[in-house]
Amino acid sequence: MTPAPYGLLAEVTHQCPLHCLYCSNPLELRRRDEEIGTEDWLRVIREAADLGVVQVHFSGGEPLVRGDLAELVAEARGCELYTNLITSGLGLTEERAKSLVVAGLNSVQLSIQGDTAEASELVAATKRFDKKREAARIIVDSGLPLNMNVVLHRLNLDRLDAIIDVCESWGAERLELANTQYYGWGLRNRDLLLPGREQLAAAEKVYQRRKAELAGRMELLWILPDYYEPYPKPCMGGWARTALTVAPDGSVYPCPVAADIDTLDFPSVLAHPLDWIWAKSPAFQAYRGTDWMPDPCRSCSRKEIDFGGCRCQAFALTGDASRTDPVCTYSPDHHLVQDAVDRANDTPVAAPEPVYRRPRAAAE
Ligand code: SF4
Ligand code: FES
């Protein structure tokens, strides 16, 4: 028996007002006219609850773009699921927040890109920092716990103290400091975003100091920069092991980035029930457990700890999702990561031009 997934990431849309340099959505975004409708989402939520899911994270893109969001939240709460909204905050009004609270929303994770409008613009090609501040106020006033998220990289790590100050002053209960992952869109901007070792170490000291100072008031979490770790992260807790992602068009993936792995045929909720997709579909079986592993993972004592790392990172860097994550010191492809780390620690040359994320055109 395959254990039940714990979480569902409901990517209700890829439409987004931001254009982040490290966007974690797949390279090929789904257009608005490809999105599944309300009835299909309501069915997916019921099927997820039947499957054993206990948490739904409504995400995107910007999930507030969808007018039926409160209806989806209400359905999830009706199925006794914990509901979390992952948002840029752009588009959140008092009325919208009220409707989400009435629907039973449990928590909100608000992202910022920096501590000022200018810093936000550099990363997301849009200023609107004042709208994020306003969104934080609305969330706190509506009685929802405010969790915040900031993706860290070379352009904002030196501002970490100020970033933490902003989140504290806005009333955050929890702040996730996530070092950038370099697959998907982030890989295109890797030489611009990957910090040097000294910059990273200085920021980690700031994190440790502030974590101690803020204990009991605001929880700080540090998501490791895997390029500077000897072993990879146990990405998603292992392939198809704890969570699943439903994309805006109804395609289902073990993680949000897996859509980029074009060697697998991912199933859709329009063609199959979620329990079959989770337990039986070939794409979900492909890298589940440890039987699929090549060496060095196959004979490694850490294979039940990190599950060979991230399949999406292996695919993005080598073109083969079954290879050992190149972050791993033992990987035969480790030089692909080490070369980038060496460049990030070399004497700086001119910074590369930023490549901002743009939506696919409707006629594409
Ligand atoms: Fe993990 Fe594989 Fe590296 Fe061992 S060889 S540490 S299992 S990625
Ligand atoms: Fe897909 Fe790591 S992001 S497995």
From TrEMBL:
It catalyses: [PQQ precursor protein] + S-adenosyl-L-methionine = E-Y cross-linked-[PQQ precursor protein] + 5'-deoxyadenosine + L-methionine + H(+). Its cofactor is [4Fe-4S] cluster. Pathway: Cofactor biosynthesis; pyrroloquinoline quinone biosynthesis. Residues 342-364 are annotated as: Disordered. GO terms for biological process: pyrroloquinoline quinone biosynthetic process. Transmembrane segments: none annotated. Its EC number is 1.21.98.4. Pfam families: Radical_SAM (PF04055), SPASM (PF13186). Gene3D superfamilies: Aldolase class I. GO terms for molecular function: 4 iron, 4 sulfur cluster binding; cyclase activity; iron ion binding; oxidoreductase activity; S-adenosyl-L-methionine binding. It is an enzyme of class 1 (oxidoreductase). InterPro entries: 4Fe4S-binding_SPASM_dom, Aldolase_TIM, Elp3/MiaA/NifB-like_rSAM, PQQ_synth_PqqE_bac, PqqE-like, Radical_SAM_PqqE_MftC-like, rSAM, rSAM_sf. The keyword S-adenosyl-L-methionine applies. [4Fe-4S] cluster binds at residues 16, 20, 23. Binds 1 [4Fe-4S] cluster. The cluster is coordinated with 3 cysteines and an exchangeable S-adenosyl-L-methionine. Catalyzes the cross-linking of a glutamate residue and a tyrosine residue in the PqqA protein as part of the biosynthesis of pyrroloquinoline quinone (PQQ). HAMAP family: PqqE. Interacts with PqqD. The interaction is necessary for activity of PqqE. This is PqqA peptide cyclase. It comes from Saccharopolyspora karakumensis. The gene is pqqE.
